[in-house]
Amino acid sequence: MPAIALLGAQWGDEGKGKATDLLGERVDYVVKFNGGNNAGHTVVVGDQKYALHLLPSGILTPGVVPVIGNGVVVDLSVLFREIDEMEARGIDCSRLVVSANAHVITPYHVQMDKVGERFLGKQKIGTTGRGIGPAYADKMSRLGVRVQDLFDEKILRQKVEGALETKNQLLVKGYNRKAIAVDDVVTEILTYAERLKPMVHDTSLLLQRALDDGKVVLLEAGQATMLDVDHGTYPFVTSSNPTAGGACTGSGIPPTRIDRVVAVAKAYSTRVGEGPMPTELLDADGDRLRDVGAEFGVTTGRPRRCGWYDAVVARYAARVNGVTDFVLTKLDVLTGLEQIPVCVAYDVDGTRHDEMPMTQTEFHHATPVYELLPGWDEDISGARAMEDLPKAARAYVESLEAMSGAPISVVGVGADRDATIAVRPLI
Ligand code: GDP
Ligand code: IMO
Ligand code: MG
Question: CB of 42 closer than 6 A to ligand 1?
Answer without folding.
Answer: yes
